[in-house]
Amino acid sequence: MKRKKRLLLAAILGATLLFTACQSTDVVGKVAVTSFEEMLNAASDNVSFDEEKGTWTLESPAGDEFKWSKDFSATEADSIIEFDAAPYISAGLDVTKLPENYSYDPSTGRLSLNFALGDEKFSYSGEAKPLDSFKKIVEAKRSLIGYHEALDHYGIALGDGNMFEWAKDMTKNDKDIVFVLNPQPFIDAGVNPEQVEGWVFAKVEMMENGKKFEVDKLLKPFDLK
Amino acid sequence: MRNENLKILGMTCAACAKAAERAVGKLDGVEKVSVNYATEKMNVDFDAEKVSIEQIKAAVSKAGYEAEEEKETKEVSMPVSGMTCAACAKAIEKAVGKLQGVESVAVNFATEKVSVKYNPKDVRLSEIKQTIIKAGYTPLEIENKNRVDEDKERKEKEIKTLWIKFVISAIFTVPLVYIAMGPMVPWLGWKLPAWLEPMQFPLLYGLVELALTIPVIIAGYRFYTVGFKAIIRRSPNMDSLIAMGTAAAVIYSIYSIYRISIYDFMYVDDLYFETAGVIITLILLGKYLEAVSKGRTSEAIKKLMGLAPKTAIVIQDDKEIEIPIEEVEVGDIILVKPGEKIPVDGEVIEGHTTIDESMLTGESIPVDKKVGDKVIGASINKHGSIKFRATKVGSDTALAQIIKLVEDAQGSKAPIAQMADIVSGYFVPIVFVIATLSAAIWYFTGQDAVFALTIFIAVLVIACPCALGLATPTAIMVGTGKGAEYGVLIKGGEALETTHKVQTIVFDKTGTITEGRPEVTDIVHTDVIDRNRLLQIAASAEKGSEHPLGEAIVRGAEKENLEMLKLDRFLAIPGHGIEVEIEGQIILLGNRKLMVERNIELAQLEEESDRLASEGKTPMYMAIDSQLAGIIAVADIVKESSAKAIRKLHEMGIEVAMITGDNKKTAQAIAKQVGIDRVLAEVLPGDKANEVKKLQEEGKKVAMVGDGINDAPALAQADIGIAIGSGTDVAMESADIVLMRSDLMDVPTAIQLSKSTLRNIKQNLFWAFAYNVAGIPLAAGLLYAFGGPKLNPVFAAAAMSLSSVSVLTNALRLKNFKPYK
Q1: B310 half-sphere exposure, CB direction, 13 A CA radius
Q2: What keywords are assigned to this protein (chain A) (predicted)?
């Protein structure tokens, strides 16, 4: 009887270890893709391909853009967040003081935050679609995808504390997508973050390395429904 | 009515003891049952016609524990030569198996060994050997294994197993805590590997925690098997609390994993595997420390058991044969050389030596032994070689009796323990109710399920009745053990507890306050004779007398090397003295009455006589040829320690009385000499108990100290009877405390030990109650309700383990007890 119990427990332990070793445990990666797809479907009219930059573009109702590469090996900036610079300039932005990967186009009045995420070559069987490219990013750079518990969002970490987030379940969330920017480079460039019109300067609870903490962020959420 | 002791296995807390008591107590025919958790023993009085021991064992088993009869069974493996076939083996089995007291016998023809399990009370090993010889075979030197060794092995195994379980548990719990909690403490700077990032790989994170928890649960599986069984039987115990608390944490965490697997990633915050892991690990550590400490509390017994030598040199046919001590028979002549231990009790028949009996009596000065003197087994022969005849062997020896007495005392319960037992019995169910109520109140007043769950777990885990159950028996074990070390044998927990309440101590005079051996103290003579001649004639007259006063005079003359004169005539005059004729002179030796009757003029020494009597001495007049020759005063010498002991008792606020059959004058004189407060003189032996009763009727707790058979009723009547070890067996049987030495300083030592033990018990009970009284409300979230912190179940587990360990550590402090000097 005792032997049977021990065997049973050993079997449970073995099965657990086997299960943990299995890829199917990546529930975040899996659902991140499905929820991204739902988000793309909800904003299908605002999704396009930027031939010049080789990126897919998701445009918010206010014209802010999140771009993601079709092929990391072919793009210099693998992901871009682009938005109207005017509210920042009004809040004191000196564009010359921005970091290198931040670019301001005086002709369009738009500010681009360019992120290099990798050099991987993405190959597609058939014609590539926006979701396919996102899947390739998840496969190649899984560690960039995370779950943001406080907002029940998924997010892609773009670097330097900048993120693009989307709701895990749009039916239960009024913030379907959120542009999340690190305010520090802007503050360093003269911006008073509390005076950036259209953007919310707030403390956000994040988790990294199993540790929860609060950080200042500039947020711009949208309800796509 | 039959009384049996059973060993109860599988108990983990005081509630288990209570559950076993309840189960057996319900049986028809069981008069009284008491289970001591610390010694793991059940003492049961039952009517053997109504209920059998097997039914009692079955009731214990049904309650979830295991009962073994405490038989004094010995197991012997004895090589036997002369077997030629399997039939020989069968023949031996048959012959030995027929002996009364043999429980089982198995003969292995291949190894040529006979294994016999027998009760030494019913059958002697020599009888078994004789039976084998009669059957035609030759028993050789035996190898034996007794109950004590088995018990020791079992305890050592238990300690080792607990240690291994703790280590396994800790090995898995440390990384579990690292993963679950480390990153939450920023200053530690602990980091998790990317693949364990809970917000990126929550399911993997949860599964890894589960994988680490499973071995911990396996290590602590006993908590679940015992704990849940106890719940099913409706007698929850400490294991039930642990099992419920940790199972709740694990089950909820598994549920959280399930929720994560269906993409409710927020449940990654609701994993409580580390709580269960830490609780089990800490409790295993606590149990290990408890087992080690419990072992230390019975060290006194182990020490006593280790005193006996393994072999003895027996003289047989003028040859010295070394045999195992178990084979020594009453009547055997045993040789003991200098430096060797006396193997059994006996009487010296040849040689002279000094023997160190300190290990048994606490007396540090070696005692001279000559032919006719008694020797005690396990004492050490210092200088000369002696031969002695064994008078007591096996369980009859003084050492075996002491061990039994101490064992019985350690297994007994003090009245103060009853309160702890009652509380422990109701404790666990009440805790379940409190835990459930607290969790429900928090939940229904707006807190979420997780909050309620942590409250539930914390209350279950912190409220352990372990410390309550250990508080009294461990202190009694250490206290009685320590007493045994100093030659103060306390027969039970009740005696130990009552002793500290004693307000009046009644000492018997002769043999207790005094040496009980009168000696010549004064010689007063007239002009008709000189001092030495007076003593010489008196001693010659008393030579051969069996009267203690006469013996004292003879000893006095012998001390002064006076030669005895030849008696021509001897006449004993009962109640008066003697009349003898020596060298033609008529000698009268006796009391005043004798002199008055024979018209001897006493005026010349009347004043001296009164003075001697007032000093508590007995004056004996001597007349030669009708002329007063002198007085020889004889007195029982007061023991050196008497006055000091009585002074010490006064310092302790205890009234000291002396009881004696002597006349008031003599009694008063002795009383004055040693500082007695109250003298009960001219008391007939049969009235001693009545005198004690009278004192008790004054509302006092009375202890009686005595040594003689005539003291036995008074020892029994007193609240505490203290027998002097040099006294009679009857006195020791009637007493609650036996002093191995004749030193009265051991009386204040016994009271001091009782006070120290009771103080220790009270401290233990205080801590045990304080932990629970403070811990339960804290765990239930009382502080949190007023804006304070909430008790993490992990800290609750640590506090709980600490409570048992602290109680045991406090009990072990008694080992530092030092008696008055």
Answers
A1: 5
A2: Signal
